Amino acid sequence: MITLKVNGKEFRLDVQPNELLIDVLQKRLGLYGSRMSCGQGECGACTVLLDGEPTLSCMMLAYQAEGKDILTIEGLADENNLHPIQEAFVEEQGFQCGFCTPGFIMSTKGLLDSNPNPNEEEIKKALSGNICRCGSYSKVVKAVNSSAKKLEGSHGAR
C-alpha cells in the first residue's frame, strides 16, 4: 500500500512493485491526460510534474512517487477556467492533433515555475524531451512565450 498525492488529493492504493506511475494514473485514477506513447522515455507525452519537476511517468514506478506532489494536466485548470498556459496554447495554436499537448504544457509549467522569463534557447532546451509528430514546434515556442507573458508578475501561481 502506498499513498499518492495527485492534484492535491491523497489516494491510498495497493500497487504492484513493477507498476508504472502512468498506469496507476490512468487505470486506477482515471486520469488520461498524460499519454502513454513510446513507453521508453523518448517522447514526453507522459510528462507530469513531480514536486514541481517535469517527470516521465512511463519511466517511473508508482511506489517511487510516494510522498511526492504529483501534478497532472487535469490538475492545472479549475472547473471554470483554463490555466493561463492552457489558454496560451489554445490562443497560439500550439498543437495540431493534441496528443502531445499535455506533455508540452506540463513541461512548460515546470520551466516557467523555475524561470518565469526564458529566452527561446531556454524554452527549446526545456522542451527538448517532448516530441510533436505533427511538427508544430514553432507554435509551441510561441505559446510558451505567450504563457510567460500571461503569468508575468504571478510567478506561475495558480
CATH class of the largest domain: Alpha Beta
Tell me the radius of gyration.
15 Å
Summarize the biggest pleated sheet. 5 strands, mixed
Quote the CATH topology of the largest domain.
Ubiquitin-like (UB roll)
Structure summary, number of beta strands: 5
Overall mean pLDDT score? 93
Oligomerization state: single chain
Notes on the structure:
- This protein is an alpha+beta fold.
- It folds into 2 domains: 2-75, Ubiquitin-like (UB roll); 84-151, [2Fe-2S]-binding domain (DNA polymerase, domain 1).
- The chain contains 5 helices and 5 strands.
- A 5-stranded mixed beta sheet has the order 2-1-5-3-4, covered by helices on one side.
- Helix 2 (84-91) packs across helix 5.
- The protein is globular and about 45 Å long.
- The termini are far apart.
- The model has no long low-confidence stretch (mean pLDDT 93).
What are its keywords?
single chain, 158 residues, alpha+beta, Ubiquitin-like (UB roll), DNA polymerase, domain 1, 2 domains, 5-stranded mixed beta sheet, 5 helices, 33% helix
Strand and helix layout:
Elements: E1 2-6, E2 9-13, H1 21-28, E3 47-50, E4 53-56, E5 69-71, H2 84-91, H3 101-114, H4 120-126, H5 137-151
Helix pairs in contact: 2-5
How would you summarize this macromolecular structure in one to three sentences?
With 158 residues, the protein is an alpha+beta fold. The chain is 33% helix and 13% strand. Strands 2-1-5-3-4 form a five-stranded mixed sheet, with helices on one face.
